[in-house]
Design a protein that fits this description.
The complex is a heterodimer of chains A (about 280) and B (about 350). Chain A has about 280 residues and is mostly helical. A two-stranded antiparallel sheet of chain A has the order 1-2. Chain A contains 15 helices and two strands. Chain A starts with a helix and ends with a helix. In chain A, strand 1 and strand 2 form a beta hairpin. With about 350 residues, chain B is an alpha+beta fold. Chain B folds into two domains: about 230 residues, P-loop containing nucleotide triphosphate hydrolases (Rossmann fold, 3-Layer(aba) Sandwich); about 90 residues, Nucleic acid-binding proteins (OB fold (Dihydrolipoamide Acetyltransferase, E2P)), CATH 2.40.50.140. In chain B, the strands form four sheets. A six-stranded mixed beta sheet of chain B has the order 6-7-8-3-9-10, sandwiched between helices. In chain B, strand 15 and strand 16 form a beta hairpin. The longest helix of chain B is centred in the middle third of the chain and has 18 residues. The interface between A and B is medium-sized, with 18 and 24 residues.
Chain lengths: ~280, ~350
């Protein structure tokens, strides 16, 4: 009896402590970043001002006035939004076909799609730059970024959608066939409403991935299509790091995603555990 | 309304033959039950008629149209699935109206047909609910309702009762029989349960390993099974088989070298004084079921058999008893071919 009480006391204390520790470890850099964004560049590097300092909006005002923040933000929104839309537009029919009309090669195709994620991005940096800059003339255009972001995320999106579609009982699809529904009707009226949670979390995740993508957006843009990742990158000045400014830009860049994630939390968790709990 | 003709219908998945070559005629308005053990191809055959499964060869004719290449919804058939397969995100009304909407039926007519079907099935009060808020029996009615509103030529039922509990199964079975009476539409019903087959069918098709074993009315199959498989599949408890080593001299007189297996249904045994009768056996277990009892016995040689009796007090467990049978209700089979010898 005593042992049982001890055990439950232990787990009552241990798990929350562990959870809080993990949460704090993860949260601290973000907290620090937000805090630093309200410090001057001089204060930002002084340990004595770690917690106690005179807050200032200087970095944010500077960011908006001198760095053309809204243009970068607008580019981020445009590229992420269009890339997500385009990815779903291609991904939904692809996943539908593989989930409901599988062939002998469906598994191979899925593995092949995933294998494209195994290619180190750096390996194709030169050909990509050369191709887009010198041959296609697409360098630093929204179109290029949207296509690149879409292609990067397409495998993951198809995999996720495939998994969600697989959860839909085959009989319901067959009932639709008996009712005479067309292929598009089947997707629109049966598959998508039933996989709504999964679709929403896939879209959200895809949007987050697009928004956060830095490798290609930094390297394939200069001004016109540059996203917030590029703005953050641009604040690494050669004369040293301006931590205050950098933090302000970073905070402004992650802010919308955190807010979006917060509001869609339930949807996201539901979608991600869709197959697991049911 | 329409009849159905299957000619040399076969189905194979790569090298595996699921349906061998089936010829079957179903008359307009008939209630036909496909019955057989699991894996016999009965559901596949139904799905081929529905158009959900392609056929490898042969022709399926519904009414006077060959439907091999016709889409499921254009065949004039409706199907009720084992798992109901209702659209979970739609209300009962929308579930039932969905097929008509696809066919671009005028709104007034959809409304009228849905309400009419709901009335027949007594689910009018459930029209605004989603399937999640319904019990299993109610879901089954909605699934049937969805089939009815399309006013098909042929109804297809794929084991529609197997997800219901025992009491509801009996009730729904009766309702399906009533529905057939009321609509008079051709119905094809798949089940592995021979009681459902016996009670519902005008005509039973017994299937095994993708072949038809026998086609006939329930009573025909019960009285004149064409082989040992059908003999054991139809009737509950199943028919007992004996060879000459199990039988007494009187019993042996009923068989010969060709017809070397004697089949006796459990309900046809008569308890007689020890020493007479066609067979002797030692009862080792009595299952009383009130109206009658099932007595599990062993022949002198140790082969098990079952006797159904309304008089369990006469059974002496552990001691040898004799049983007789009216020769007119016995069945003779050839062990080699498994066929019935008349």
């Amino acid at each position: 009896m005593v042992a049982v009480v001890n055990k439950s006391t232990f787990s009552k204390v241990f798990w929350p402590v562990l959870a809080w520790t993990v949460a704090i470890v993860f949260f601290f850099p973000i907290f620090w970043m937000v805090l630093t964004s309200f410090k001057t560049d001089a204060d930002a590097v002084k340990p004595e001002h770690l917690i106690v300092f005179t807050p200032t909006l200087e970095n944010y005002l500077n960011m908006i006035e001198n760095y053309d923040f809204w243009r970068f933000a607008k580019n981020s929104v445009i590229t992420s939004l269009f890339a997500t839309t385009f990815t779903l537009f291609v991904g939904v029919p692809a996943a539908y076909a593989m989930a409901f009309n599988p062939s002998r090669h469906t598994k191979d195709i899925l593995i092949w799609m995933l294998s494209t994620k195994m290619l180190p991005a750096a390996a194709v940096l030169y050909p990509m730059t050369f191709l887009t800059k010198n041959i296609l003339g697409l360098f630093d255009t929204h179109f290029l970024i949207i296509i690149v972001l879409s292609l990067i995320n397409l495998p993951i999106v198809i995999w996720m959608l495939f998994t969600y579609f697989k959860e839909i009982p085959k009989e319901i699809i067959e009932a639709g066939k008996m009712d005479g529904v067309s292929i598009w009707g089947e997707i629109k009226d049966i598959v998508l409403p039933l996989a709504w949670g999964g679709l929403a979390s896939t879209a959200l995740l895809c949007f987050i991935f697009c928004w956060n993508e830095a490798y290609w957006t930094v390297r394939l843009t200069t001004i016109d299509a540059a996203t917030l990742s590029k703005l953050i990158e641009g604040n690494r000045a050669p004369e040293g790091l301006f931590f205050g400014r950098l933090s302000a830009v970073s905070t402004a860049a992650v802010g919308p995603i955190v807010v979006l994630g917060w509001f869609c939390q339930k949807q996201l968790v539901q979608g991600l555990t869709f197959g697991a709990v049911k | 309304m329409a009849g159905l003709i299957l000619r040399n219908v076969a189905k194979s998945y790569e090298a595996t033959k699921v349906i061998e070559s089936i010829d079957l005629e179903i008359k307009d308005g008939e209630f036909v039950v496909f019955v057989g053990p699991s894996g016999c191809g009965k559901s596949t055959l139904l799905r081929m008629i529905a158009g959900l499964e392609e056929i490898s060869s042969g022709t399926i004719t519904i009414g006077d149209q060959i439907v091999n290449e016709v889409a499921p919804a254009k065949r004039g058939v409706s199907m009720v699935f084992q798992t109901y397969a209702l659209y979970p995100h739609m209300t009962v009304y929308k579930n039932m109206a969905f097929g008509l909407k696809q066919a671009k039926t005028p709104k007034d007519e959809i409304d009228q047909r849905v309400r009419n079907a709901a009335e027949i099935l007594e689910i009018s009060s459930l029209l605004d609910r989603t399937p999640k808020a319904l019990s299993g029996g109610q879901r089954q009615r909605v699934a049937i309702g969805r089939a009815i509103v399309r006013e098909p030529e042929v109804f297809l039922f794929d084991e529609p009762l197997s997800n219901l509990d025992a009491a509801l199964r009996v009730q729904t079975r009766i309702e399906i029989a009533r529905l057939h009476e009321r609509l008079g539409t051709t119905m094809i019903y798949v089940t592995h349960d021979q009681v459902e087959a016996m009670t519902l069918a005008d005509k039973i098709v017994v299937l095994r390993d993708g072949n038809i074993e026998q086609i006939g009315s329930p009573i025909e199959l019960y009285r004149n099974p064409s082989n040992m498989f059908v003999a054991q599949f139809i009737g509950s408890p199943k028919m007992n088989f004996f060879d000459s080593d199990d039988l007494t001299d009187a019993g042996r007189a009923l068989i010969n070298s060709r017809a070397d297996i004697l089949g006796i249904r459990p309900e046809h045994f008569i308890v007689v004084p020890t020493g007479s009768g066609v067979i002797q056996g030692k009862p080792n277990l009595v299952e009383p079921l009130g109206e009658y009892a099932l007595v599990h016995c062993e022949t002198v040689r140790g082969s098990p058999f079952i006797v159904k009796t309304t008089d369990p007090e006469n059974i002496k467990k552990g001691s040898v008893m004799s049983f007789d049978v009216d020769p007119a209700v016995t069945h003779r089979f050839d062990q080699l071919s498994q066929g019935r010898i008349v």
